[in-house]
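User: Just a sanity check before I run the rest of the batch. Below are the structure tokens for the first item. I only need the designed sequence back.
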């Protein structure tokens, strides 16, 4: 038998196409033995003989606990096997970034990001992990295969979070998880939930909010949805990964208070409420230590304080000082990473294996640590569909999932402005002028690991056509070829710049005043789309990105002037992933619909909202400032030295986003929690179940639809705490809920609950979460500034909610901002 296999392998090296080798191997007697699901019968009970050795090994005995079975494997593993388990199998194609790094195993799913190794003698299969936050990212086409493997592009993170709807988010997660499972993947490298510390972060589109409660609850709902399908998630990037500039090396200086209240709190909520299978450590350093080397983060906080039971994996090449260092033979500190509790090094390269094996052989890395990390990885493998030999179909229900993404995108849209009921515009007889290159070259989602290879994106043009709108034909005939040309040129330019090239803004078409005046004569309304895209590997810029380009301002000015002269309306559709400047131009138009990057069905979703089929109920999960400089983090982003940042100081402390704007009295363009509706809601009858806090407090409020159409309202609860011991933000979001769809005149009583930790702040001097004694004010409303009802309660004596160990000692002196 062995001779036959050697002959076949020798033959395969001379054969040009691997397909022939596989065909030969499949017909060999060896393969037939392999393909039979081998079993062993002991005491009348049948067990899988996963390593095909004809006997029942301890780890195959399902009568024993998983714990015992895994311990038996670890006992028999050689040092080399342990190292192969602790380091990933590489990522095909990564050499473009890193230079040659040695062998990469192509997993069973082309386009996946990597995985863990297989061990035939234990019957342990290779498992597979794949990107990403807006849906599964795999190759749609495969060699020698006529089938397509498209995945659904769901709305981006900012759009999903803006729904404030946990039930809906869980449905999105279920659909994502189904595609992961049916395409043979074990873990989706998502969701991404870093805090939006600064509006220019190039990956904010993947993230959820400037607030840790929204961020944590949104991620938990999505994780619960994905993992209900029997596959895992990897929540990322843990932690304080809040910029893309020099992301592999940047050293973030953060106080322990800011770290615990903002940058860890969201992860804590997600870990405790959804038990993700894995956590991904981030690239950056915190206070001088790479997060993948930080025992404080990965063991003390994550495991000891929060009770996390899964595995920690690095981000791809985490702990390497930049991709350049890999080219010149640099290496991450593998021993430090293992000791910190970073179980799996991804994507894994031979150089890391060599160093780790030497360390294990010499005792520089203890067997105890290697065994613990290996055990956690085996516990993960034992849970996977691959280990259970799940027969995946390669046919998820893409039609059903298109409906899920269409509804989620519509619910996440935020109506920023609606003068004189410019929207909904339901008149299908009157002509519509559709302006803006992005109306025709629609943006589904951002680039990098957060992108999806979906079959087709529905543009706004297609969405409005499908909904039966009468579009100005001359405009469409002008714009369509122009947009196609612009889009193709942008894609070519990105291709030429390499794998992590950032997307550019598409130019706008130059049209003259007379042309706009002619359109205002014949059309009833103008829709103008403004588009923005960004991606992994770089941050956004001020000019022509955060701020509008001169040509965009000119276009808006000319359209508004022409249409308003004829008494017609102008509505702007924002097809963007993150915050842009709105204050300088919002008064020129009648309506603004923030559509985000709403996934593959985006054009349909916008048409659903614009027509009134869906009443918008999204609310902002971040502040839209008047000027970029109004953000407290603006003077410390992306860091110093300006031309090549090595350090960034989070000097604003806990005053990020609305905590800063509202505490320091800085007026935003649109505040956190803001969003309009086609109907109106009245709040009344706020009640607390007690005037003093005793372990928990219930707050009830009635919400009534007082308008003319059905709609949903997001009810937000902000808490103002006494600030005697330490400074506190003016108010902080502590609970929220979304009503069901309320018909005109219908009411619903919403109940919101406050727990001890919701009252507490982290007091560094006491190394504890403390709720001060004194009076607390509850503010319930439609945004952080639009408060409808208030109530008060008291805490009779100081509560020490949780005592913890100090973590992440400062590596440089600075004082956090105080009011």
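Assistant: Here's the designed sequence for the first item:
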């Amino acid at each position: 038998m062995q001779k036959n296999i050697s002959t076949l392998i020798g033959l395969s090296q001379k054969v040009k196409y691997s397909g022939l080798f596989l065909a030969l191997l499949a017909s060999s007697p060896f393969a037939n033995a392999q393909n039979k699901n081998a079993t062993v019968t002991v005491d009348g009970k049948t067990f899988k003989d996963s390593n095909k050795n004809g006997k029942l090994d301890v780890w195959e005995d399902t009568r024993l606990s998983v714990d015992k079975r895994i311990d038996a494997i670890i006992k028999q593993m050689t040092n080399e096997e342990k190292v192969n388990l602790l380091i990933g199998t590489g990522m095909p194609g990564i050499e473009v970034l890193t230079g040659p790094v040695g062998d990469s195993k192509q997993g069973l799913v082309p386009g996946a990001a990597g995985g863990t190794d297989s061990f035939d003698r234990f019957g342990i299969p290779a498992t597979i992990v794949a990107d990403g936050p807006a849906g599964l990212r795999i190759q749609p086409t495969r060699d020698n295969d006529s089938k397509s493997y498209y995945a659904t592009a769901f709305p981006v993170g900012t759009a999903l979070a803006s729904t404030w709807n946990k039930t809906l988010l869980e449905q999105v997660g279920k659909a994502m998880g189904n595609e992961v499972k049916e395409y043979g993947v074990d873990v989706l490298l998502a969701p991404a939930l870093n805090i939006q510390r600064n509006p220019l972060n190039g990956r904010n589109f993947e993230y959820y909010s400037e607030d840790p409660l929204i961020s944590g609850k949104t991620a938990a709902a999505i994780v619960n949805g994905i993992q209900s399908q029997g596959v895992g998630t990897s929540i990322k990037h843990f932690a304080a990964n809040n910029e893309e500039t020099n992301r592999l090396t940047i050293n973030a200086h953060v106080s322990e208070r800011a770290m615990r209240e903002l940058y860890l709190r969201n992860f804590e909520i997600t870990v405790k409420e959804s038990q993700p299978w894995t956590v991904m450590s981030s690239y950056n350093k915190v206070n001088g230590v790479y997060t993948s080397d930080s025992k404080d983060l990965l063991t003390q906080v994550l495991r000891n304080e929060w009770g996390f039971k899964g595995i920690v994996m690095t981000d791809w090449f985490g702990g390497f000082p930049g991709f350049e260092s890999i080219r010149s033979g640099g290496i991450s500190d593998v021993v430090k990473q293992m000791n910190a509790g970073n179980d799996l090094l991804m994507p894994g390269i031979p150089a890391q294996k060599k160093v780790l094996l030497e360390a294990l052989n010499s005792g520089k890395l203890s067997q105890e640590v290697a065994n613990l990390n290996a055990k956690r990885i085996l516990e993960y493998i034992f849970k996977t569909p691959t280990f259970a030999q799940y027969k995946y179909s390669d046919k998820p229900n893409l039609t059903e999932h298109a409906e899920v993404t269409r509804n989620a995108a519509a619910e996440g849209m935020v109506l920023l402005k609606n003068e004189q009921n410019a929207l909904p515009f339901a008149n299908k007889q009157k002509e519509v002028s559709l302006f803006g290159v992005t109306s025709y070259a629609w943006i589904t989602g951002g680039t990098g690991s957060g992108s999806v290879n979906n079959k087709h994106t529905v543009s706004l043009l297609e969405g409005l056509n499908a909904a039966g709108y009468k579009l100005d034909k001359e405009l469409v005939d002008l714009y369509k070829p122009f947009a196609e040309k612009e889009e193709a040129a942008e894609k070519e330019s990105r291709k030429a710049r390499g794998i992590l090239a950032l997307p550019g803004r598409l130019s706008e078409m130059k049209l003259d005043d007379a042309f706009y005046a002619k359109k205002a004569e014949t059309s009833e309304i103008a829709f103008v789309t403004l588009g923005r895209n960004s991606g992994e590997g770089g941050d956004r810029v001020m000019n022509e990105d955060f701020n509008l380009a001169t040509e965009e301002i000119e276009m808006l000015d000319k359209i508004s002037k022409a249409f308003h002269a004829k008494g017609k309306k102008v509505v702007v559709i924002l097809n963007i992933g993150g915050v842009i400047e709105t204050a300088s131009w919002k008064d020129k138009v009648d309506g603004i619909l923030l559509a985000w990057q709403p996934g593959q069905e985006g054009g349909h979703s916008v048409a659903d909202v614009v027509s009134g089929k869906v009443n918008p109920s999204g609310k902002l999960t971040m502040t839209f400032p008047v000027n970029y400089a109004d953000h407290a983090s603006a003077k410390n982003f992306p860091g110093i030295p300006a031309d090549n940042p090595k350090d960034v100081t989070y000097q604003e402390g806990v005053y990020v986003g609305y905590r800063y704007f509202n505490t320091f009295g800085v007026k935003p363009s649109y505040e956190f929690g803001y969003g309009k509706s086609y109907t109106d809601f009245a709040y009344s009858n706020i009640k607390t179940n007690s005037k003093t806090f005793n372990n928990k407090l219930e707050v009830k409020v009635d919400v009534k639809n007082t308008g003319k159409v059905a709609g949903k309202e997001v009810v937000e609860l902000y808490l103002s705490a006494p600030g005697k011991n330490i400074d506190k933000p003016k108010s902080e979001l502590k609970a929220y809920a979304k009503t069901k769809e309320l018909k005109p005149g219908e009411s619903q009583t919403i109940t919101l609950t406050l727990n001890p930790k919701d009252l507490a702040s982290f007091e560094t001097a006491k190394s504890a979460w403390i709720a001060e004694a004194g009076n607390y004010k509850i503010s319930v409303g439609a945004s952080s500034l639009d408060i409808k009802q208030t109530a008060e309660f008291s805490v009779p004596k100081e509560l020490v909610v949780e005592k913890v160990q100090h973590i992440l000692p400062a590596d440089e002196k600075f004082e956090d901002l105080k009011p």
